[in-house]
Amino acid sequence: MLNGHFYYNNKVRARERMEKFEVTILGCGSATPTRRHNPSAQIVNIHDKLTLIDCGEGTQLQMRHMKQKFMALRNVFISHLHGDHCFGLPGLISTFGLLGRTRDFHVYAHAPLEGMLDAQLKMSCHALPFNVVFHAVDPTQYAMIYDDRTMEVWSLPLSHSMECNGFLFKEKPGQRHINREMTDCYEIPKCYLGKIRAGEDWTMPDGRVIPNSRLTTPAYPPRSYAYCSDTSYLPSLVEMIKGVDLLYHETTYDNSKEIKAKLHGHSTAGQAASIAKQAEVGQLLIGHYSATYYDTSLLLNQAREVFANTIAADEGMVVEVRKKEEGGKG
């Protein structure tokens, strides 16, 4: 009997621990692939729902190397139409077809990509066994572009050499956690625990009301992740990403190349860190390195001079999104 109770409690604890929210780096280089870095691509895992951000050339090979589940990808968000952010998409969709995917695949991107992608798929991918559903994103608007039970995704207007936007992923608040000792003490039926998690009180057979605060502990606070690539230094971004727990901000150049960065619509290490500091984010993740940097320690050190809690993206890295007070590291 005790063993059975212990096993049940372990299952409850496992179910109620903090849900997964992590970012896997598939590529963090810029326009030219190098032996060191692949073009831009990331997988965001929120509660075991996988989303792809950008899909540069070689993304599906990176997914193979990192043992990512192709069929688990629900959708992709493309920041802009430069090739290092979208050239891998037709190949990935083709592979979905070869693997027998049947679930719809949703593409969120600027309107011109729809025609380009449709032409490529008609030419190369015949009779796909699933639908590619396109959702046009207005890159000039800060707006919610995706919503489900666990998260929202917002578009973040950026400043680049062509229309470009970033993405803000907001986890939705979860339910409260059951205090098993208290619910057992009051002999609350298991079938009612869902309502207790949702915040309801418990009424005893004699009419006494047991407040929910005695039966549960607070839900974990929701977390957030902002993806900002590619962009020049953009102070207006600060209010849109204020207080996010993890910020990915492009760091194409070191501080000595500020003029070049502005000319090409990119940021330096110091500028990325300045945005992080002004926005009071929990942690800064830098990436989108110019091909001239095989060793990115210069960029990391310059960013840390302004914002200490900075880490440098690298292929294969998995970064857990944690609340600011937890001081999460990759």
Task: Provide a descriptive summary of the structure in words.
This protein has about 325 residues and is an alpha/beta fold. It folds into 2 domains: about 1-175 and about 220-325, 4-Layer Sandwich (Metallo-beta-lactamase, Chain A); about 175-215, no CATH class. It is built from 12 helices and 18 strands. The strands form 4 sheets. The chain has a 7-stranded mixed sheet. A 7-stranded mixed sheet has the order 7-8-9-14-15-16-17, covered by helices on one side. Strands 10-13 form a two-stranded antiparallel sheet. Helix 9 links the parallel strand 14 and strand 15. Helix 4 packs across helix 5 (about 110-125) and helix 11 runs parallel beside helix 12 (about 295-305). The protein is globular. The protein starts with a helix and ends in a 10-residue tail after the last strand. The model is unreliable at about 1-15 (pLDDT under 50).
How many strands, which pairing sense, and closed or not: the largest β-sheet?
A: 7 strands, mixed
**Terminus-to-terminus distance:** 42 Å
Structural class: alpha/beta
Helix content: 25-40%
* Largest sheet strand order: 6-5-4-3-2-1-18
Specify the overall morphology.
globular
Name of the CATH first level of the largest domain: Alpha Beta
Low-confidence stretches: 1-16
**Overall radius of gyration:** 22 Å
Average pLDDT score: 91
Based on the coordinates given, report the CATH architecture of the largest domain.
4-Layer Sandwich
What is the oligomeric state here? single chain
Strand content: 15-25%
Number of discrete helical segments: 12
CATH superfamily of the largest domain: Ribonuclease Z/Hydroxyacylglutathione hydrolase-like
How many strands? Answer: 18
